[in-house]
Amino acid sequence: MYFLRKNTLKDLKVFFVYTILLFISIISVLTFRFVFQSYDLYILFYRFFIVGEFALISHFFAFNIMQIRLKKLIKFLIVPFSIFSIYDYITSFGKPFTFYPLVLECLLFPLIIILFFYERMKYITKAPIYQSATFWIAVGFLVFSTGNFFLFLSSKLLLQDRQNMALYNHIYDFFTVLKNIFLCIAIKSSRNSKINNNEFEAIINLPFENFTSLKNKANL
Length: 220
Hints:
This protein is mostly helical. It has one domain. It is 77% helix and 0% strand. Helix 7 runs antiparallel to helix 9.
Protein backbone atom coordinates (compact mmCIF):
# COMPACT_ATOMS: atom_id res chain seq x y z
CA MET A 1 0.00 0.00 0.00
CA TYR A 2 2.97 2.32 0.61
CA PHE A 3 4.07 1.80 -2.99
CA LEU A 4 0.54 2.60 -4.23
CA ARG A 5 0.27 5.82 -2.18
CA LYS A 6 3.67 7.09 -3.25
CA ASN A 7 3.06 6.50 -6.97
CA THR A 8 0.16 8.22 -8.73
CA LEU A 9 1.15 7.23 -12.28
CA LYS A 10 -1.26 4.87 -14.02
CA ASP A 11 1.46 2.53 -15.24
CA LEU A 12 2.83 1.90 -11.74
CA LYS A 13 -0.69 1.33 -10.44
CA VAL A 14 -1.13 -1.33 -13.13
CA PHE A 15 2.15 -2.89 -12.03
CA PHE A 16 0.90 -2.87 -8.42
CA VAL A 17 -2.24 -4.77 -9.52
CA TYR A 18 0.05 -7.26 -11.27
CA THR A 19 1.99 -7.90 -8.07
CA ILE A 20 -1.30 -8.57 -6.24
CA LEU A 21 -2.35 -10.96 -9.02
CA LEU A 22 1.01 -12.71 -8.81
CA PHE A 23 0.72 -13.18 -5.04
CA ILE A 24 -2.85 -14.50 -5.25
CA SER A 25 -1.88 -16.82 -8.10
CA ILE A 26 1.06 -18.33 -6.20
CA ILE A 27 -1.13 -19.04 -3.16
CA SER A 28 -3.96 -20.44 -5.27
CA VAL A 29 -1.75 -22.61 -7.48
CA LEU A 30 0.02 -24.12 -4.47
CA THR A 31 -3.33 -24.72 -2.76
CA PHE A 32 -4.93 -26.44 -5.78
CA ARG A 33 -1.79 -28.42 -6.51
CA PHE A 34 -0.78 -29.70 -3.08
CA VAL A 35 -3.77 -29.23 -0.72
CA PHE A 36 -6.75 -30.12 -2.89
CA GLN A 37 -4.53 -32.12 -5.26
CA SER A 38 -6.66 -31.06 -8.22
CA TYR A 39 -4.57 -30.87 -11.37
CA ASP A 40 -7.49 -29.55 -13.46
CA LEU A 41 -8.12 -26.59 -11.13
CA TYR A 42 -4.39 -25.94 -10.99
CA ILE A 43 -4.14 -25.76 -14.79
CA LEU A 44 -7.32 -23.68 -15.10
CA PHE A 45 -6.17 -21.06 -12.60
CA TYR A 46 -2.68 -20.97 -14.09
CA ARG A 47 -4.21 -20.31 -17.52
CA PHE A 48 -6.16 -17.38 -16.08
CA PHE A 49 -2.94 -16.06 -14.55
CA ILE A 50 -1.12 -16.18 -17.91
CA VAL A 51 -3.90 -14.17 -19.59
CA GLY A 52 -4.04 -11.72 -16.68
CA GLU A 53 -0.27 -11.30 -16.67
CA PHE A 54 -0.14 -10.56 -20.39
CA ALA A 55 -3.07 -8.13 -20.17
CA LEU A 56 -1.66 -6.17 -17.22
CA ILE A 57 1.94 -6.00 -18.43
CA SER A 58 0.76 -5.03 -21.92
CA HIS A 59 -1.31 -2.22 -20.41
CA PHE A 60 1.71 -1.17 -18.37
CA PHE A 61 3.86 -0.72 -21.48
CA ALA A 62 0.96 0.83 -23.41
CA PHE A 63 0.84 3.59 -20.77
CA ASN A 64 4.57 4.19 -21.31
CA ILE A 65 4.47 4.31 -25.13
CA MET A 66 3.30 7.66 -26.46
CA GLN A 67 2.57 6.88 -30.10
CA ILE A 68 -1.20 6.40 -30.31
CA ARG A 69 -1.09 3.67 -32.96
CA LEU A 70 1.39 1.61 -30.99
CA LYS A 71 -0.66 2.03 -27.81
CA LYS A 72 -3.77 0.76 -29.58
CA LEU A 73 -1.85 -2.11 -31.19
CA ILE A 74 -0.44 -3.28 -27.86
CA LYS A 75 -3.85 -3.16 -26.21
CA PHE A 76 -5.40 -4.97 -29.18
CA LEU A 77 -2.90 -7.83 -28.82
CA ILE A 78 -4.61 -8.77 -25.56
CA VAL A 79 -7.70 -9.95 -27.45
CA PRO A 80 -6.05 -12.47 -29.84
CA PHE A 81 -3.75 -13.64 -27.04
CA SER A 82 -6.74 -14.35 -24.79
CA ILE A 83 -8.58 -16.15 -27.60
CA PHE A 84 -5.53 -18.26 -28.37
CA SER A 85 -5.08 -19.15 -24.70
CA ILE A 86 -8.72 -20.22 -24.36
CA TYR A 87 -8.52 -22.23 -27.57
CA ASP A 88 -5.32 -23.93 -26.43
CA TYR A 89 -6.91 -24.80 -23.07
CA ILE A 90 -10.01 -26.29 -24.69
CA THR A 91 -8.10 -28.34 -27.27
CA SER A 92 -5.59 -29.62 -24.70
CA PHE A 93 -8.11 -30.36 -21.93
CA GLY A 94 -7.28 -33.66 -20.23
CA LYS A 95 -3.82 -33.69 -21.80
CA PRO A 96 -0.44 -32.62 -20.38
CA PHE A 97 0.05 -28.89 -19.97
CA THR A 98 0.99 -27.13 -23.19
CA PHE A 99 3.34 -24.15 -23.13
CA TYR A 100 2.17 -22.47 -26.33
CA PRO A 101 0.59 -19.41 -24.60
CA LEU A 102 3.83 -18.91 -22.66
CA VAL A 103 5.84 -19.21 -25.88
CA LEU A 104 3.64 -16.56 -27.49
CA GLU A 105 3.92 -14.33 -24.44
CA CYS A 106 7.72 -14.62 -24.43
CA LEU A 107 7.71 -13.75 -28.13
CA LEU A 108 5.51 -10.65 -27.84
CA PHE A 109 6.97 -9.13 -24.68
CA PRO A 110 10.48 -8.56 -26.14
CA LEU A 111 8.97 -6.88 -29.20
CA ILE A 112 6.90 -4.54 -27.02
CA ILE A 113 9.84 -3.80 -24.74
CA ILE A 114 12.13 -3.02 -27.69
CA LEU A 115 9.58 -0.43 -28.87
CA PHE A 116 9.49 0.99 -25.36
CA PHE A 117 13.29 1.28 -25.20
CA TYR A 118 13.39 2.85 -28.67
CA GLU A 119 11.04 5.64 -27.68
CA ARG A 120 12.78 6.25 -24.36
CA MET A 121 16.25 6.49 -25.86
CA LYS A 122 15.02 8.66 -28.71
CA TYR A 123 13.06 11.25 -26.73
CA ILE A 124 14.21 11.20 -23.07
CA THR A 125 17.09 13.64 -22.54
CA LYS A 126 16.54 15.13 -19.07
CA ALA A 127 17.77 12.12 -17.08
CA PRO A 128 19.19 8.64 -17.76
CA ILE A 129 16.43 6.11 -18.41
CA TYR A 130 17.88 3.72 -15.82
CA GLN A 131 16.73 6.12 -13.09
CA SER A 132 13.08 5.30 -13.78
CA ALA A 133 11.16 2.34 -12.36
CA THR A 134 9.73 1.48 -15.77
CA PHE A 135 13.23 0.82 -17.11
CA TRP A 136 13.95 -1.87 -14.51
CA ILE A 137 10.52 -3.44 -14.94
CA ALA A 138 11.17 -3.62 -18.69
CA VAL A 139 14.62 -5.14 -18.12
CA GLY A 140 13.15 -7.74 -15.78
CA PHE A 141 10.51 -8.94 -18.24
CA LEU A 142 12.94 -8.75 -21.15
CA VAL A 143 15.42 -11.03 -19.37
CA PHE A 144 12.67 -13.41 -18.26
CA SER A 145 11.02 -13.62 -21.71
CA THR A 146 14.18 -14.04 -23.76
CA GLY A 147 15.70 -16.45 -21.26
CA ASN A 148 12.67 -18.75 -21.14
CA PHE A 149 11.50 -18.54 -24.76
CA PHE A 150 13.44 -21.55 -26.04
CA LEU A 151 12.90 -23.30 -22.71
CA PHE A 152 9.12 -23.20 -23.15
CA LEU A 153 9.45 -23.97 -26.85
CA SER A 154 11.35 -27.21 -26.15
CA SER A 155 9.41 -28.09 -22.99
CA LYS A 156 7.98 -31.31 -24.40
CA LEU A 157 11.45 -32.71 -24.97
CA LEU A 158 12.89 -31.45 -21.68
CA LEU A 159 10.09 -32.77 -19.49
CA GLN A 160 10.28 -36.35 -20.71
CA ASP A 161 12.77 -37.55 -18.09
CA ARG A 162 13.81 -36.50 -14.59
CA GLN A 163 17.28 -35.28 -15.52
CA ASN A 164 16.01 -32.89 -18.16
CA MET A 165 13.13 -31.87 -15.87
CA ALA A 166 15.65 -30.87 -13.21
CA LEU A 167 17.56 -28.84 -15.80
CA TYR A 168 14.30 -27.20 -16.89
CA ASN A 169 13.46 -26.22 -13.31
CA HIS A 170 16.95 -24.79 -12.69
CA ILE A 171 16.85 -22.62 -15.81
CA TYR A 172 13.32 -21.40 -15.11
CA ASP A 173 14.11 -20.65 -11.46
CA PHE A 174 17.26 -18.73 -12.43
CA PHE A 175 15.47 -16.35 -14.80
CA THR A 176 12.53 -15.99 -12.40
CA VAL A 177 14.82 -14.95 -9.56
CA LEU A 178 16.68 -12.60 -11.90
CA LYS A 179 13.41 -11.00 -12.99
CA ASN A 180 12.31 -10.53 -9.39
CA ILE A 181 15.62 -8.85 -8.53
CA PHE A 182 15.06 -6.30 -11.30
CA LEU A 183 11.47 -5.75 -10.12
CA CYS A 184 12.73 -5.07 -6.60
CA ILE A 185 15.17 -2.52 -8.03
CA ALA A 186 12.20 -0.94 -9.86
CA ILE A 187 10.24 -0.57 -6.61
CA LYS A 188 13.22 1.05 -4.93
CA SER A 189 13.97 3.41 -7.82
CA SER A 190 10.31 4.48 -8.05
CA ARG A 191 10.74 6.52 -4.85
CA ASN A 192 13.17 8.97 -6.42
CA SER A 193 12.46 8.63 -10.14
CA LYS A 194 13.29 11.77 -12.13
CA ILE A 195 11.34 10.79 -15.23
CA ASN A 196 7.59 10.83 -15.59
CA ASN A 197 5.22 10.41 -18.48
CA ASN A 198 4.09 14.03 -18.51
CA GLU A 199 7.64 15.23 -19.22
CA PHE A 200 8.05 12.51 -21.83
CA GLU A 201 4.82 13.48 -23.57
CA ALA A 202 5.86 17.13 -23.57
CA ILE A 203 9.16 16.23 -25.23
CA ILE A 204 7.67 14.01 -27.91
CA ASN A 205 5.02 16.60 -28.84
CA LEU A 206 7.39 19.53 -29.35
CA PRO A 207 6.54 21.31 -32.64
CA PHE A 208 9.28 21.25 -35.25
CA GLU A 209 9.03 24.99 -35.88
CA ASN A 210 10.61 25.57 -32.48
CA PHE A 211 13.89 24.13 -33.78
CA THR A 212 16.31 26.12 -35.93
CA SER A 213 19.01 24.75 -38.14
CA LEU A 214 22.59 25.15 -36.98
CA LYS A 215 23.64 25.34 -40.61
CA ASN A 216 21.42 28.37 -41.21
CA LYS A 217 22.84 30.09 -38.14
CA ALA A 218 26.36 29.57 -39.43
CA ASN A 219 25.49 31.34 -42.68
CA LEU A 220 24.13 34.45 -40.94
